[in-house]
Write a structure and sequence with these properties.
By secondary structure, this protein is mainly beta. It has one helix and 94 strands. The strands form three sheets. The chain has a 61-stranded mixed β-sheet that branches. It has a 22-stranded mixed β-sheet, with no helix packed on it.
């Protein structure tokens, strides 16, 4: 064989090495764009460099020199390094019929085509060298930074993957007899195959996109006792990660605390279990079951099957779709669940949820001892709080509904939302905004609600409401009661037939309407507001005028059995709506013993209204006036305080005035201290009890 030598510092290009010839490149020499024909040989000494070489079938390329650029070998190559450790990338393709032995891939890429073979390839470099196997790779050594990828039709036999190295088998590929050492990893993608693979303690085994079939149980995470998955033996301490797996009917995926899973699909009859310390993300449960045990977490889960969250487990941002069920058991927590049409979330005793959103057709049920907080119920969605269950801070809007048999605190009901309070249930601090409705049924109770403008509260038969602040509408129906209501400007409290109101305060611009058959008891305070009473005011009840303004409108004075206090200013009015104002009307005052109350009598033809007033009044000070509609105002204008008492005191001293004068004049023939003394005339005015 004839040998041609390229010395150090010499670069040769465009050469053809024919049969029977050898080209030897010494250290420091460079050969470029050279072709080795069948029977020819090219040797790169240590430190020599080959660029863009082609080796035909039957040709030979030997190392230990380095290859840069793109080289193609259909013959044999051995001992070379692909890529220059100084940073120049290399690409070496072993074509069909070609073979490679002992090739080191540094900052480069080795491709083994179908029909080609490679033995003893070394892949280890911080520059992340890799090979693509479409043929057969035997005994590859994959170290830190290295990757071996076994593609469809490719086969890797006896690879050793050490710390920082990675081997992956894709669909149609096969790995046989690989050893995955501590810190190394192997990934089996969908339809990829593995045989006699061994994963040592600390090694990482990925399963991606495969199917866990009936009767197969795969544990993802830290392996305890030695186990097998398919053709892989996993030593104790090995780690398994699962990604985009499908769990078929009868299959089981168990996720432990190290490693994790993502994108799993659990089909009908399949099961995924998340143990303590483990986390799964993006699971799709399509008729199967996902169980989160104590210390486990499931996030962003889409449900068409069943999600069961056990004590100590957490579900976060789950989506419960049609046919799906989320079961939150005692001691478990679900956060940010989205329940869509046909989905159902069930919160058991001792369980809790936070931030649930219920869309149209979705349902959340909170059982006795369960707790929900911050739930949002939108159009067509329903939250059911059973007896003993609790919801706090819910928002009900746009046609959503909350059915309450338990306890609800601080709900906001707005824009078509409905809160219904059933027997034995209690709602407190509810805020009812424009378009929102609260219905309190028999045996239900509302405490401290705030009804804003446009909001509506309805207390139905047997229901009760207390301490309501009202700027919207509240109706108290047959058999229902309301107590301590504050009616603000724009608010209307309506007491229907059979309804009872106690202790309302009606501010300026507010209205209380007691309809026929309705009843007011206790003390109703008119703080500038209006009370229109067509029904009854019970004996012992008081309507108290407070500060300026206020109208007490009586459609049926005979049904008013209560008392009136605080009528001290001309801006305060009693409106007898059925007494047509006219010259024939009369008013009189009859003082009761003790001068602390009396009877005010207004006569309009055959109609007589007899009203009990608390305080000290005189007939001459009451005036009648038209209410500008069809009734009569009764007003008691203010007077000089204490004047009437002064007149009485003077009379006790023997000072009198002319009969019927209503005042004091100079006294002729008088007696006592002021006999024959000129006395200031004072109009006889009432001394009011304020």
């Amino acid at each position: 064989m004839t040998t041609t030598t390229i010395s150090s510092g010499v670069t040769s290009s465009g050469l053809i090495v024919s049969s029977g010839n050898e080209l030897l490149v010494l250290s420091g020499g460079v050969v470029d764009t050279t072709t080795v024909l069948s029977g020819g040989a090219l040797t790169l000494s240590s430190g020599a460099l080959g660029n863009n070489l082609t080796v035909s079938s039957g040709g030979e390329l030997d190392g230990p020199g380095e290859l840069v650029g793109d080289s193609y070998v259909a013959g044999q190559v051995s001992g070379v390094t692909v890529g220059d450790p100084g940073g120049y990338l290399g690409y070496l393709e072993i074509q069909s019929g070609g073979s490679a032995e002992g090739v080191t891939v540094a900052p480069g890429h080795l491709q083994i085509d179908s029909g080609a073979t490679a033995t003893g390839t070394v892949l280890s470099n911080p520059a992340e060298p890799y090979d693509e196997v479409y043929g057969i790779a035997s005994g590859s050594i994959v170290g830190s930074g290295g990757d071996e990828n076994v593609n469809s039709g490719g086969e890797s036999v006896g690879a050793i993957v050490s710390s920082g190295g990675s081997e992956a088998v894709f669909s149609g590929g096969l790995i046989v007899g690989a050893t995955i050492q501590s810190g190394g990893d192997a990934t089996v993608y969908v339809s990829g195959a593995d045989e006699a693979v061994h994963v040592s303690s600390g090694g990482l085994f990925f399963l991606q996109g495969g199917v866990i079939s009936s009767g197969v149980k795969i544990t993802a995470g830290l392996i305890g006792p030695t186990t097998t998955i398919g053709g892989t033996t996993l030593s104790s301490g090995a780690i398994v990660d699962s990604l985009n797996q499908t769990v078929a009917r009868g299959g089981t995926l168990v996720v432990t605390g190290v490693g994790g899973t993502g994108g799993t699909t659990v089909s009908s009859g399949g099961r995924e279990v998340v143990r303590s310390g483990a986390s799964v993300d993006g699971t799709i449960v399509s008729g199967g079951n996902l169980t989160v045990l104590s210390g486990g977490t499931a996030s962003e889960t889409v449900q068409g099957g069943t999600l069961t969250v056990s004590s100590g487990g957490t579900a976060s941002r789950a989506t419960i779709s049609s046919g799906g069920i989320e079961q939150v058991l005692a001691g478990a927590l679900a956060v940010g669940t989205l329940v869509s049409s046909g989905g159902e979330a069930m919160v058991g005793s001792g369980a809790s949820t936070s931030g649930t959103i219920i869309l149209g057709g979705g349902t959340e049920i909170i059982s006795s001892g369960g707790v929900g907080s911050g739930t949002t119920v939108l159009a067509g969605g329903v939250e059911v709080v059973l007896a003993g269950g609790t919801e706090a801070g819910a928002t009900v809007s746009s046609g959503g509904g909350v059915t309450l048999d338990g306890t609800d605190e601080g709900a906001t009901v707005v824009n078509g939302g409905v809160l219904t309070v059933y027997a034995g249930a209690t709602a407190s601090g509810t805020i009812i905004i424009s378009g929102g409705v609260e219905r309190v049924l028999s045996g239900g109770a509302e405490i401290g609600a705030i009804v804003s403008s446009g909001g509506v509260g309805a207390i139905l038969s047997g229901g009760s409401a207390s301490k309501t602040i009202l700027a919207g509408g509240l109706t108290v129906s047959d058999g229902a009661t309301a107590g301590g209501t504050t009616v603000l400007k724009g608010g209307t409290l309506t007491v229907s037939s059979g309804g009872i109101d106690s202790g309302a305060t009606v501010s300026r611009g507010g209205i209380e309407r007691v309809l026929p058959g309705g009843l007011a008891v206790g003390t109703t305070t008119l703080a500038g507001g209006t009370a229109t009473i067509s029904g009854a005011v019970a004996s012992g009840a008081i309507v108290a005028f407070y500060r300026s303004g206020g109208v007490l409108a009586l459609a049926d004075p005979s049904a008013f059995a209560g008392e009136i206090s605080g009528l001290t200013q001309s801006s305060q009015k009693i409106d007898l709506t059925g007494f047509a104002y006219g010259a024939g009307e009369t008013v009189s005052w009859t003082e009761a013993a003790g001068n602390t109350s009396g009877t005010l009598t207004i006569t309009d033809g055959a109609q007589v209204a007899s009203l009990t007033l608390l305080g000290d009044y005189v007939t001459s000070n009451f005036t009648l006036a038209s209410d500008a509609q069809s009734g009569t105002y009764v007003v008691d204008p203010p007077s000089l305080a204490g004047a009437h008492a002064f007149v009485q005191a003077m009379a006790s001293l023997g000072v009198t005035g002319p009969s019927g004068s209503g005042g004091l004049n100079p006294i002729s023939g008088g007696h006592g201290l002021f006999a024959n003394a000129p006395i200031l005339t004072v109009a006889n005015r009432e001394a009011r009890r304020l």
